[in-house]
Fold this sequence. Notes:
This protein is an alpha/beta fold. It is built from eight helices and seven strands. The chain has helices spanning 11-19, 22-35, 39-52, 88-94, 142-151, 174-185, 192-198, 207-214, and strands at 59-64, 78-85, 108-112, 125-130, 152-163, 219-227, 232-239. Strands 3-2-1-4-5-7-6 form a seven-stranded mixed β-sheet, with helices on both faces.
Amino acid sequence: MPTDAANGDRRWADRAASLYDESYARRYRARDNELESTRSNQELIGWLGGVCDRFDHSIDVLDLGCGTGRYFWGLRRLKSLTGLDASDAMIAQAREPIHGERLSAVPVTLVAGDVVNHSFPNGSFDLVYSIGVLAEHVPLTQATIDRVTAWLRPGGRFAFTTVHPKSPSVSRPLTRRLAETATDMLPNSLTPALHRRLVVDGMYADERWITQLLAGCLAIESLDRFASDVHLHGRCVARKAA
């Protein structure tokens, strides 16, 4: 596994802070308005709202890697919302997110921090979600799953997307295609090391990787694939035991 919070790894936070400067954040925020009417974005907003509707009470929510708050407006049943992002410039844009008026009655807290190193008290949230961050910009590791599980209350849910290793956006030379064929045809017990290489220790994540990480922590309620205009994604909702 890549070095994680236990060893104070700052690679991912430092990379985000350097890439997502004020100029980039302004362009990204402008893109939020353009994406509002696109099919893939509408589907993600609907998916997120559907996750919220799985609760029968108002919920405290954490957006893990919130960026400009692109998906805030898809949330329902909100009691409070916390957004975490490693880029100060993105956090600044998230103060005026798309359709921010829908959050006018909801306490919103924006936190500058990164997925790998930041901590919240145990049992802080009913829902933690992360779209376009894990297994894309930050590796999806057991340490991350364990941290999110601790932050959830009993019965809480973790909803997230990943980049699937079979996404057209992933380079697939002959050696990779042969490795994929082997992992598809052989029993999982014979290919753990090969599979880890295909998912690059969590920089991509397929159904097998997600299932493996969640086992013993969270029960998978839904796990499917989702095509955006950029990637083929994995999309998962998992629940903590009540």
